[in-house]
Amino acid sequence: MGKSILGNNILDVVAVAWFVAQFLKVIHGLITDKKLYLQRFWETGGMPSSHSSTVASLTTAVGIVYGISSGLFAVSIVLAVIVMHDAVGIRRAAGKQAGVVNRMGTWLTNHSNEAYFQEELKELLGHKHIEVLAGAILGVLITLLMMNHLH
Known about the structure:
There is one protein chain. The longest helix is centred in the N-terminal third of the chain and has 25 residues, at 9-33. The chain is elongated. The protein is an all-alpha fold. It has one domain. Helix content is 68%, strand content 0%. It has 6 helices and no strands.
């Protein structure tokens, strides 16, 4: 295997996949909102899914290094499915619920003399299906582009 930055070649590739996905969230925000939100680099949710990019990269790298019939690949693919399903399921639903609670708090605050929230709940938690798919494709592509780092 080639020289590793983080002490593990697979971890190197996965870190790059995560970084690129997070960087692309900032670029996506710049294009869609016409504003530079550097904090998007550290936030969850948005386009593309860095969780999906990370687990897709991990699964692809493990498949390349250890083979698709290995136990490590089986563990990686199960993890990837759980993470991606969670992103479009539970985390997305939690974000939608946070939006409803935020609107209720705003309405209550506007119609009474009391403030109901010190701060709003975070709404951008999960992902749309397209964001998860884009993240997964990105993770696979980055891993394939960095395949020589794995050997």
